């Protein structure tokens, strides 16, 4: 028996070895102190994050192709547990959740993949990617040494690893995945978990290693990552980062290309110059693998946004915009940098490194391999340009920039000299229809009568305490009703002329009703906690019905113990009477009353009014008596898809807050009426020089953070499509319209010696608005000629070279534009603005 067993396990061992190495295409991934090695060769790896559920399978090939064209070697993604296992042991890997299809699309494009399994993701994703049923399991504690949690985490991690293995997607099996990640930024939050956190971390490492995936594991932001986990850096800059083991390379897992947006917030923007500076500094200081977070941000469809209050758009100011268009100049400026870095791969990964301090925050780093030297020269001074003399030539390194030089002589690239055009996006109204006037609407009220009038049987269960919302709803809906009956007899001391309802609220949005009548609504601003206090004038003797509708807008996704953040109406909830004669205040605490609970709204969650079946089956009222600014109202219209292939958006101007659906698919929550504050949009702050953070350069003060919502083409049919809006606060749908987004024009500013490429990205160049070679001033839209100007008319030259073409390229030189006089020491530039057809 024993022998038999041994034979069996020996055999198994052989089979395992065979199955790991059988493929002739297997890629060996290893690491040393310099780089990740692919089949024994050190590599420079440029990677970008694209989260598969934030776009559609139909968009993936194009996004990944553009990533490859942009000079990336790898695509990185998290795995989103709550999308895949919405109900315990019931899985969804279809459509946008088709992880395997996504990884195969990456493979088909010939790129590597980095799989951050987590399964905690953060990512501004609802509840950080954790399913809410997990939180509701008895005895569970998340992200710590807790058996219930660890069993579930292992179960899901194993499921993903097995799925990926079955498709041979790990590099060790010939697949694209070169690295995997367990946990995520735990180092940032670990201290409050104490020893249990440390034990959990060690367990994560062991559990990961036991998965036997044949490629290295990463742990980001984890300076004490146990071996063989590779600890990596996340941040705006990572050049000062050193890994915790001399035998692992310096890896940057999240280089934040921009920042996310939130309802009621401003729009953040990070300049191309500064992102390029951060990347060049990282490679200058020995980094060899970096990942852009995000390369394509995309859209938080449905109820997937985290938060609270993360917006539906997750554009992130990434190199590919929300719709998959190039975000120029960021995309092109980084592409040029990637090409230069790849051309230096051998020097950067095998070369001898020599650092020279040139004074005043200027350093030169040379990488010499065999006969070739490549150099980086950085100027970290935030205001003063540096001029250095190399080989008898003067070279200007602008403040806060890095130059990269071939042979340490010829400048190939400078992070502050942007030679890529700035594309100007145009919104074109739906050419298939005359919107918005052509859209005809029908409507229905959301039926809340039985909840606010206390009809019997409307609730699901009762409780004598105020319950936390997630624990009741399992997050199957944003909405939860808290309802109670209060008997006020004739002699109750509470009676007065000034009676009010007070709710100590931890919810995001509250709508309060007494005896069928609305008494007020309120939403959290700044802190996700507010005190509701509204006068009520319809309390009556006898039975009173109090109905409180609590709504969430994305569950918290970050912080120590973020999962324990309570949301809902935990009270106290009181009726307060103030006597006018003696100022006496009498309160009646309702917190321990019997409360009846009902999850969701009738139309939204039970009848699914947005679904294809209900949209046609149920009666909708026509436009004649359509209410405007009415709370809890449904609107419906049909539309033809805009012509062409450009991305489609729906402009929801006029609407308040709610959720939008196209052909039964949720395109996300909307919230136009929560406006950003008026302060802080100082464009001078957008100078690329100096440390960036997400508050440095913001736009859109006093406005709504998002009025346009992406409608992926694959959601649309050729003939008739349906848009359904659930409006919670009150809005006016008559301004709603569909549009396409395209390049309307472009500006460029290129230095002498460079070649400028101009493109309408699929459309024709129809005109040249401005062109000047010399020292033009101003910026896109307001360029002006300077004193120095080439002898030939720049506009005529560009018209000849470009108009009527999709793209054109022109050498920026005196040979083309003629000798320029009066230019002094200044380097000459070409400024141009083109118009697209
Ligand atoms: C996950 O747990 C279920 C039981 O709930 C079990 O049947 C299944 O085999 C487990 N999966 C893995 C990969 O461990
Ligand atoms: C930049 O250089 C100037 C001139 O040498 C110096 O006075 C200043 O302190 C430097 N500033 C920074 C931030 O390096
Ligand atoms: C370089 O700059 C220095 C100082 O401005 C100047 O004296 C010198 O002539 C310049 N050399 C060249 C080759 O332009
Ligand atoms: C939430 O989940 C529990 C079991 O975990 C279940 O009893 C309850 O009915 C669920 N509630 C809703 C609203 O889905
Ligand atoms: C209101 O709720 C908050 C958060 O749950 C709690 O900290 C606070 O003590 C409550 N206020 C009162 C008066 O109970
Ligand atoms: C610390 C932190 O905020 N972590 C985050 C890093 O960057 C993005 C922010 O967009 C998150 O998704 C990370 O998890």
From TrEMBL:
Keywords: Glycosidase, Hydrolase, Signal. GO terms for molecular function: beta-galactosidase activity; carbohydrate binding. InterPro entries: BetaGal_gal-bd, Galactose-bd-like_sf, GH, GHD, Gly_Hdrlase_35_cat, Glyco_hydro_35_CS, Glycoside_Hdrlase_35, Lectin_gal-bd_dom. GO terms for biological process: galactose catabolic process; plant-type cell wall modification. The keyword Hydrolase applies. Residues 1-26 form the signal peptide. GO terms for cellular component: apoplast; plant-type cell wall; vacuole. Its EC number is 3.2.1.23. Coiled coil: none annotated. It is an enzyme of class 3 (hydrolase). It catalyses: Hydrolysis of terminal non-reducing beta-D-galactose residues in beta-D-galactosides. Residues 750-837 form the SUEL-type lectin domain. Belongs to the glycosyl hydrolase 35 family. This is Beta-galactosidase. It comes from Spinacia oleracea (Spinach).
